[in-house]
Design a protein that fits this description.
- Its main location: membrane.
- The protein has a single domain, classed as MFS general substrate transporter like domains (Growth Hormone, Chain: A, Up-down Bundle).
- Helix content is about 75%, strand content about 0%.
- The longest helix has about 30 residues.
- The N terminus and C terminus are likely disordered.
């Protein structure tokens, strides 16, 4: 561990406001891009790109493409992690954001199956994979920008800001879909649970095209960043690895496995509460696979209300994790997720109030479990491989959790004759796996981001909870 710095603190390289805005803005845009596909995958893509005489088959096909992006995320994590650990966080974040923006914009101009046949479906799959590839490099870079520039004792709080991009991106994306649906003329005598003809014909394209504006803003914000003092020191001392992936796999495979399973319950919970619940909430009560029968507008408004709790409790989780530790906080929250999966059906059975309570509780737990991850996963790895290691753990977990969650949930929903009790049981089982990983892991609250080793009490008193006085100074206003 380096000796405490002497003399006056160096000038800050990134003001706190710039760090927080850059980490928040980028992930908000990327999650916006990612989740407008999730919404379209439920509303229009089964009809436009996966025509089938069986609606359930078309929906499952759409979800399968949704999952294909999750498979691409670990590949993106390896690629962008290599760039981030070799070239720096700033350049890599700009490239990942630009990749996501181009892919999302192109989805908005794709021909449909009726216009181009299987070529249209293939292009959608390609763009979806590009989205997943880009997001694979986005999250870990944004988390590192926040945590490597965090002041003493506030690393988990700063780590919640890139996490906050998930609920904000969801609210902006689905809010835009609602506005477009309200402005477009409704189809006479149409099923209220289905979008209008105008929305299906062209309205769904607007959110994808609008992403170009958001990406331009995000690129401007990130172009003003300067590399963190922690990474700059690693580069100056010659500790940059030629092959970060090989170093992570050989020397930190235990952290990779633990990090992957620590994220599992978070992924499963979020995609069940968003992608699956939108299908379940809108399905008619007399459909082949019965649902709740709400109109699209009503249920999305209920979801957005729940996501507000997601955002609020993401921020709440940061100070708790800083005070009590990441591991302790997450153990209690994960145990609550296990219970939530078991009471899933009784809550929904209480009627509209129960459904709203189900959404609020689910998204509250999502915020509490998602928030600390922005600090915990980067803390598992040393600076020289932190981008690669945290990115792989985060995104491999997306395959085990998010890629299959909507697909499995629909199958279990159908197997339960319209009752989602099996879906809740599935969530509880995945949360148990996360609980085991947390119990096997160690607390990372006092780990130094400067060298990846646990900070001693004396060092912490001189250099801060992250073990690097330079990192603390770099975030001063």
């Amino acid at each position: 561990m380096p000796a405490p710095a002497s003399g006056p603190s160096p000038a800050p390289v990134n003001p706190r406001s710039r760090v927080l805005v850059a980490s928040l803005m980028g992930t908000t845009i990327e999650f916006y891009d990612f989740y407008i596909y999730a919404t379209a995958a439920v509303l229009v893509f089964p009809k436009l790109f996966f025509p089938s005489s069986d609606p359930t088959t078309a929906l499952l096909s759409s979800f399968a493409v949704f999952g294909a992006a999750m498979v691409a995320r670990p590949i993106g994590a390896v690629f962008f992690g290599h760039l981030g650990d070799r070239l720096g966080r700033k350049k890599t974040l700009v490239i990942s954001l630009l990749t996501m923006g181009i892919a999302t914009f192109l989805i908005g101009v794709l021909p449909t199956y009726a216009q181009a046949g299987w070529v249209a479906t293939a292009l959608l799959v390609l763009m979806r994979i590009a989205q997943g590839f880009a997001l694979g490099g986005e999250w870990s870079g944004a988390a590192l920008v926040a945590t490597e520039n965090a002041p003493r004792g506030k690393r988990a709080l700063y780590g919640t800001f890139p996490q906050l991009g998930a609920p904000l991106g969801f609210i902006i994306g689905n809010g835009l879909f609602l506005v477009i649906g309200a402005l477009l003329p409704s189809t006479a005598g149409a099923d209220p649970t289905q979008p209008s003809d105008a929305f299906v014909d062209w309205g769904w394209r607007i959110p994808f095209l609008f992403s170009a504006v958001m990406v331009a803003i995000g690129l401007w914000v990130r172009s003003r960043l300067v590399e963190s003092a922690v990474f700059a020191k690693t580069r100056e001392t010659g500790k940059v690895r030629k092959l970060p992936l090989a170093t992570v796999v050989q020397g930190h495979w235990k952290q990779l496995v633990l990090g992957t399973f620590i994220m599992l319950a978070t992924y499963v919970l979020f995609y069940l509460m968003t992608t699956f619940s939108l299908s379940y909430g809108r399905a008619a009560e007399d459909a082949a696979v019965p649902g709740l029968g709400y109109s699209y507008t009503t249920f999305v408004l209920m979801m957005i209300f729940g996501v507000l709790f997601f955002a609020a409790f993401t921020l709440v989780s940061g100070p708790l994790a800083d005070k009590y530790g990441r591991r302790t906080t997450l153990i209690w929250i994960t145990a609550a997720i296990v219970v939530f999966g078991l009471v899933w059906v009784p809550l929904i059975g209480l009627g509209t109030l129960g459904v709203l309570l189900w959404l609020v509780l689910g998204f509250t737990l999502m915020g509490m479990t998602f928030g600390p991850m922005g600090a915990l996963l980067p803390e598992l790895f040393p600076t020289s491989v932190r981008y690669t290691g945290s990115g792989i753990a985060y995104n491999v977990s997306s395959i085990l959790g998010a890629a299959v969650a909507p697909f499995i949930a629909v199958a279990l929903w159908e197997a339960g004759d319209g009752s989602p009790w099996l879906v809740g049981l599935y969530l509880s089982a995945m949360a148990v796996l996360t609980l085991i990983a947390l119990l096997l892991g160690k607390e990372t609250k006092d780990v130094s981001l400067d060298d990846g080793e646990a900070a001693t009490p004396d060092a912490e008193a001189d250099t801060g909870a992250d073990g690097s006085r330079a990192a603390v100074a770099s975030s001063a206003p």
